[in-house]
Amino acid sequence: MNPTAETPPPTERSEKDIIRSLQEEVSASRLSLFLQCRLKFYYRYVLRLKKPKTASLHVGNSVHAALKAWSKARWLGKPLSLRDLHDAYTKAWADISEGVVPWETGEEEEEKTTGWRLCDTYIRQCGSMATIKPDAVEVSVEADLSQHGLPRLIGILDLVQEGTIIDFKTSSSTPNPSSVEHLHELQVSSYAVLYRHNTGKKETGIELHHLVKLKNPKLCVTDLPPMTEQQEHRLFHLMDTYYEELGRAEFYPSPSFACMGCEFFGECRRWR
After folding, report:
1. Other beta carbons less than 10 A from residue 74's beta carbon
2. Strand, coil or helix: what is 106?
3. Residue 225 has pLDDT above 70, yes or no
């Protein structure tokens, strides 16, 4: 071996290797996307195509970061003032580590104000929960489900308080109570499995906190009961489907009205 020879650059992983690693672990968001459209999953997680960050995603991330700071301060026993919360939100807004938004003229300030109004609304409308010390804030957890022949489940719990799993969401419209549980069952079931696996206890309930971006913003809280055995079975079945079907590497589009807002619409139209 020639000691003076330059070390060759590392070779990029093959598509087969990437798929194999994706089979080893899964999150609720990955699983949901795979079930919705396999081609979109392929573009995002296998090819890893980069797209500009959307305004709505940036607003959501900034609000989420500010509420994380608010929750963590309560956990430490040092509640934030409204000014401190605004500072946390401003700092999060300036963070472009996850991508730059291609703002149109005047759009950024308008969206920034919208996001702050959501934070302010949450603090004013969250009621007695503001006085309760959280059990956990923004904690990364995983569950080894190999005994079920399933991939490792991973996820991040926004907030756990008195045994209740709380997830923050921003929305442009008021959520429909009759459909919220159905639309988010996969996600909340994943959180319940993660919570039980890491605490050895059953959650007391699950709450979805939707911050709605209206002229007069509002907080909509949806209370859901603990995960049922049937819901756990459904989740495990879907995870098994993910593992088996991903291994076949059959990535094809699933045309629907959701395509109009898909960042990979152009690539999909050129799909062969």
Report:
1. 20
2. coil
3. yes
